[in-house]
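Reviewer 2 asked us to include a model.

Predict the structure of this chain.
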Amino acid sequence: MTHAHPFVSQEALSVAGQKEPAACGAAVRPSAVGQAATTRQLRLLTYNIQAGIATRGFQDYLTHGWKHVLPYPARLENLARVGSFLRGYDIVGLQEADSGSLRSGFVNLTEYLAEHGGFPYWYDQTNRDLGHFAQHSIGLVSRLVPYAVEEHRLPGRIKGRGALCSFFGDARDPIVLVIVHLALSRAARMRQLAFIAERLVAYRHVVLMGDLNCEANSAEISWLTTRLGLREPQFEHRTFPSWRPARNIDHILVSPSLQVRSAEVLRHTFSDHLPVAMEVGLPYPVAVSGDLAATPVLRAAV
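Predicted model (structure tokens):
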């Protein structure tokens, strides 16, 4: 099941007093934190934030496991520090966020990071809804406004994985940015990547980011790069676990049309993963903007 929605601005949320996106076809309004001008480069970041939990060693999974279920004050303090370093980026993809449940103190963590990072726009997708106890989600915070956002439910024997697709720029030749958190099993990941590739094959400018739960030399990444032509800079980018990185399972992959100017892993240990950052240049005449003078057009979900 897929859904297409307008994007959510901070101002629209404060007026509505709730998380729901603006009404279909309504203009999305910028917030008081400002908006970006048209740009031909993007500063991207992907981060598995582990629901705001800082982990210092494997023993913490046992001794701090209760933090995945119950609220604690340091969670938001930790995320406020995350929000501070996110200020250096244009678009951020989040994994292991929470849409507002008991464990997060009923705070939407994507919205919280948007506020603390000074981002005018945010959107989150709940993939595993455990009611008041947990709202497992992926999220997008951005200084640039997409003209459409799609939610996709990914296939798998165990439900609860999704892909969040945002479309920027000109609808005739857009930048398509996809945030994912893939399954733990290889068979499920292959099915999920095949599902994603089928929906992206027609686009020339694609960014795929997230916790893929597989390494750069895996069969899954090899298949994906062959199918879509995506590429990943060849650099050492171990991201997990954050206190002693041994595996590179967090990725930003881009189409050949996007010029990779820099890529790095950031040594911020606010989670059990490290964030991956990338700066890309957009091909002429492609550009994206924060200008909301025109009403955004919704792309029909596929």
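Confidence is low (pLDDT under 50) at residues 1-36, 291-302. The chain has one domain: 2-17+39-281. We have added this to the supplementary material.
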